[in-house]
Structures are given as C-alpha cells and as structure tokens.
Specification:
Strand 3, helix 3 and strand 4 form a beta-alpha-beta unit. This protein is of the alpha+beta class. Helix 6 runs antiparallel to helix 10, helix 7 packs parallel to helix 10 and helix 8 packs antiparallel against helix 9. The protein has a five-stranded mixed sheet, with helices on both faces.
Length: 342
Amino acid sequence: MSFTGGLEADHRVDSSNSMRPETAARVAACVEKLRRQRVYRHVLAVVVCGSAGRGEDRPLPPGGGSDIDLMIITDSRSPFVGRRIAQVLNESRDSGIEGGQVPRATLRVHRTLLNYEARCNGTVVDGARAVLAEIPMRGPADIPRWEAVRLLFNRLFEHIKLSAGLQDEDGCIAKTYEAIGEAQLVLERRYRPSFAERWEEVRERPLPETVPRLQEKYLQTATHRLGATAPPIASVETAQADLLQALSAALGLYTGLDGDLQAKLAALSRQEHNWLHRVYWIPRNALLGEPILLRYVLTDPSLVIWRDGLDYLTGRAAAADPAKLLLRWQACPQILRPRVCP
C-alpha cells in the first residue's frame, strides 16, 4: 500500500485514456514490475508524461523505442529509493520506458517543462490522481527560461545516442528541431503543453529564424511525429549545427553574455553552486568504482556532463565512449529552478 498523505489512491493501471494501445500495454507491464518491489510502498503515483500520455508519441517498433516518459512520484526524497526505481525502469528500457523518481516535496517546488506538462495533461496510471494538482504551474509564464537552456543541452544527447547506435537518424533530427522550436516558445513565454497546441501556436505566430528555416523545420516535425512518410528535415550534420547555434543563443540570452558556446558554458559553471548535487555525485561515483575527478568538486556535475557531451560532438573528445557518456547523463541530477524568473 502506498502512503498517499491524505490523497485518494486508485491502485490500478488505467488504460481508459488517450495512450496508444501498445504504449498502455508497455506501461502496464512496467507498473506491475514496480508493484512487486518493496520500494513500491513509497510510490504515490505513476504518471505517463509528455507525448506518450497524450497519444502523440511516434509508433514504437516491436521491442524498441524511447518515447514513454514515466514520472514516479514518491513520498521519499531518498536517493536509494530513486536508485531502485531507476533500476526497475531500466529493466523496461527496451520497451521504450524512461523516467525516474520525483519526490512529492520537489514536485511542489521545481518549475520544469515535465512538471508543467504533467500538471496540464499527464496521465496518472496508478496511485493518487490529485497529486498533480500540487504542481504550482498554471501557464507558460510560470516556466523559467532556464528550461529552454536545459532542454537544448539535453538534446545534445540525442546525437550521442545516435553515435552509440541507440537512436535512428530521422528520430534524432526530428527531436532536434522539436527542441529548438520548443525552447524558443519557452523563451517567448508561449509554450503549450501538447504538440498539437504548439503546432497551432506556431502556425498562428511563426517562429523567428534563430536558425535557418526554423519555422519550416519545426512544422515538418509534425509529419514525422504522426508517423507519416516525409522527406528528411535536414541532414544530421545540419541538425547538430543548428542545435549548437540555438543553444548558444539561448544561453547568451539567459546569461547576458557574448562569446562562443564554450565560453558561455564556462561562465555558467562559475555561477552555479549546487553543493548538494556535488555531495551526492562524488560518493555515488566512488561506490560504483568510477574515478573521483577534481572537476566534479569544482563544478556542478550536470554542467560537467553537458560539457563532456559538447566536447564529444564537436571533436574535442572524439575518443570518448558515447555509451558511458549516456549512462552518466541519465544518472546525474540536473539544476532546476524553484522560481519563475529568470
């Protein structure tokens, strides 16, 4: 039995929603695995977020895919609870399952794109439905501009997945331009919580050309998202170059700094001081037998990993193992904003 803290619980997998039947089946199998674990007693709700919860995800091939994001809301902030939940979800990775623990206490504070979409139209498949009402976000003005920067940094890793053989070219390109367009909508305070709403928003008020032909490229992702055959949006090389250009522009707007992307990231690294992330990350690496590097002491770990990803894609660390980069990125806590501005 989960501890719902006064919330009314409904412990069943609900398939009466807009999810694709194959998506609902994969989610149900993962939830059943989670229920068999002792850690399940800390689970308040299991939420399918993003495109999968709305039925807007790409059709998944048998035994594959990576478009089902699960938010496991817990009554505990323990990293050990989070680690066990991550292990369970990892067992379903071949079914397209991704995600992790979201403590209830942080759900009430952190203003992220994931939380915003979950608040607006997340699908609760197990547990207490009312918990999503605790997310303090009601509109696009509540999304910090930092989320645009974070979204673009994280999309670098779609290109690293491609290098590791864990992503196909069409998916990598489409996700790149989805992210560039959505980051721009965040910066302009007009982000919408579903793909259909974002496409409509952009048709009514076109995106600026922060990268060449952004409006055309972003709208063309709709064809790929809906599973229809379409000509390539761009080459992988062009998509990566556009992503780096958009990231540099967003980071410059966020920090108020000029210069190249590396210089802006270096300045950001000097500004951020999340000591709890450093205190968590260094012992975590020690327990796993990974080297304890001085840079994790001097810089917040997520910024180190974003820099590693950037160095790999731009050839500064071409010999790095992309699979190991992905594992560190997936495990690393990221800087989140508890306030609206900046």
